Amino acid sequence: MAVSGQGCMAQETTVQEIGRLVVVGVGLIGGSLALGLKAARGCREIIGVARRSEVCEQAVALGVVDRAVTDIETILPELEPGDVVFVAVPTLAVEAVFAQLKNGLPGGVVVTDGASVKGSVVTAAQRVWGDVPDFLVPGHPIAGSEQSGVTAARDDLYIAHRIILTPMENTDEQHLRRIQTMWESVGAEVLTMPVAEHDEVLAATSHLPHVIAYGLVDTLAHDAENENIFRYAAGGFRDFTRIASSDPVMWRDIMLANRDAILKSIDLYTSNLDSLRSAIASGDSERLMGVFTRAKAARDHFTKMLAKKAYTETMQATEVTFVARPGGAVNGDLRVPGDKSMSHRSIMLGSLAEGVTEVEGFLEGEDALATLQSFRDMGVVIEGPVDGRVTIHGVGMHGLQAPPGPLYVGNSGTSMRLLAGLLAGQAFDSVLTGDESLSKRPMNRVANPLREMGAEVETAEDGRPPLKIKGGRALKAIDYTLPMASAQVKSCVLLAGLYADGKTSTTEPAPTRDHTERMLAGFGYEVLRDASRASLVGGGSLTACHIDVPADISSATFFMVAASIAPGSDVLLRHVGINPTRDGAINILRAMGADITLENRREVGGEPVADIRVRYAPLKGIQIPEDQVPLAIDEFPAIFVAAACADGETVLTGAEELRVKESDRIQAMADGLRILGINAEPTPDGIVIQGKGGDSAAPVFGGGVVDSLGDHRIAMSFAVAALRAGADIRIQHCANVATSFPNFAELARRAGMNLEVS
Ligand code: S3P
């Protein structure tokens, strides 16, 4: 039987990537591709094939296909090279369709499919053709709905959805490209992967949830005591079981076709459910919290991934750009987020302590959250963060468990270097990985001393991440003289020293932040400190405590500089940590003439804290004292902006470490400052900046586009520069501001800056 409609939708202007599309099985999946291609004018004609003539008529009447037949063999002789046959029938019916195609499919026609299991499609092809033919491109659109049938077909079903193609070694390249183009033209994102990998991934992420949803609804529906259950079932039930309304035939087929991979997933899930059952039975609140907090973190991460995907899909952009409008001043009373260094350390030490550690003021930025997630991955129950509050159920010095996979710490050098020290002392192997920027940063500075302690640490080429750390090594104490002033290296060695036999000492060439030493003492671990030397004896234990993380002076610096360069500014920064190993920015800005006063000085949890008041004052260029460099190491990008607004020359030396931060901060700032019209000359260990400011409100910077290179502090520094710019400053690649100061734009606007995020 054959049914015809109103002709085809070919337009002369259209680039024809494929000729005809034959859709075998005009249901939701096949019909939606047909409608999508029609909307995109992506082919010359669409022919539907359905077993029942009513479906053929319906498909034509709905405009899903141009014509339809019940017997595919009748149209095979018409097909030409470049045409595509899309087999969109239930998984187990694919073989019968292949058998019909076998005798009569003209050369040059591509066959693809939409079955949810690829192993069974490949087996079906082998059974029919003897081998998988090169014109078969197995595929699987990861899209659908619990509705089925041709009436459910939609032209937008595949927009922003993934299509997985699983080409074989012999798959024809041109055919593969044609299918890829076909899916892209209906708005899908096409990925390729091996057949076995596809089936395992789908078993876990799609097939298992369907088994569970069907099983749960069936259990409840058959439970006599629960006969009223659906009447009272609310959102949770609805969200969780939506997929149990899917097509039973399709899902029965999938279960049978992907048997082995699904059984593996079911077994894993069953044992997890058993363990949850016994935790509930025995009132094991900690185990329940462990599973729930880990699962929540994973789900939140997934939600964010989905949101980012939606964002990039609609905005067609993966980047965050700051557009900083010129002029303005900063005023008011602000509290910037918690100290990043202390936030990392609070999670690390809290996890290894005996007892429950409560943290407040925790920085909910991506870097500190990466540390938090790493410890969750190693089995630590961590509640929060909620409004900066985190509760850590410490597992003791030897209570960490092997993580299920590599620990991914994103952009965070502190996480990677400090964790390396702790992991060297564990009984299990571990791998630390990071993002593109972190993957370029030097790790031999920690790997070398750890090796001296007897650890087995492997790096990638040139000492770059990932770090592979072997567990179960007996560590021996060392007396380590740091070749560079680095708190991360010092902390790494001291943390490994907790697991070493004997007394581990570090000697630093200049004072660096001492939060590790102070916090260890706060957790009751004795640290001997004598000038530049810090020592501890391994084998002790940590006792849980309460930690109040003050606001981060590194984040506060952006507002200190903002107020110092913008006439009319007067800002109060609350509860900022002013540890003498971190106060270089205050000293340097004051030396330049900044009006900074420290009010309400106090000590909180072993760390000095104050409210910092900054009023506008004209600045002058200075030679920055080298002893201040490690004390202001993260603040230089902002200080360079202050230098550009000062009267006269500012010279920085002894700061080669700036070249190996999240970016080469000397080069990145020099490049950006030059684009904005400042004479900034990089040197191997610093920079020389000719200030254009002084006692006037006149613009110092021109407008322009600068690249932050994904470095949070470069991004925020140029945003501050706009206060003294003559035109917009557009700052590229600002997404990483979220690593240390997630609400920067909001606070900046509240203070009076005109900053747009796009
Ligand atoms: C940090 C130490 C510093 C600093 C980083 C945080 C820490 O790094 O730049 O942002 O928390 O120990 P180095 O140790 O590389 O100087």
From TrEMBL:
Catalytic activity annotation: 3-phosphoshikimate + phosphoenolpyruvate = 5-O-(1-carboxyvinyl)-3-phosphoshikimate + phosphate
Residues the record lists as binding phosphoenolpyruvate: 340, 413, 441, 488, 665, 713
Gene it is expressed from: aroA
Main location: cytoplasm
Ranges for domain Prephenate/arogenate dehydrogenase: 19-310
Enzyme Commission number: 2.5.1.19
Function summary: Catalyzes the transfer of the enolpyruvyl moiety of phosphoenolpyruvate (PEP) to the 5-hydroxyl of shikimate-3-phosphate (S3P) to produce enolpyruvyl shikimate-3-phosphate and inorganic phosphate.
Any one GO molecular function term: prephenate dehydrogenase (NAD+) activity
Protein's name according to its UniProt entry: 3-phosphoshikimate 1-carboxyvinyltransferase
Catalytic residue list: 634
Family listed: Belongs to the EPSP synthase family.
Top-rank lineage group of the source organism: Bacteria
Cellular localisation: Cytoplasm
Subunit structure, as described in the record: Monomer.
SUPFAM superfamilies assigned: 6-phosphogluconate dehydrogenase C-terminal domain-like, EPT/RTPC-like, NAD(P)-binding Rossmann-fold domains
Binding site for 3-phosphoshikimate: 340-341, 345, 486, 488, 634, 661
NCBIfam families in UniProt: aroA, PRK14806.1
Entry keywords, A to Z: Amino-acid biosynthesis, Aromatic amino acid biosynthesis, Cytoplasm, Oxidoreductase, Transferase
Pathway given in the UniProt record: Metabolic intermediate biosynthesis; chorismate biosynthesis; chorismate from D-erythrose 4-phosphate and phosphoenolpyruvate: step 6/7
The species this protein was found in: Microbulbifer bruguierae
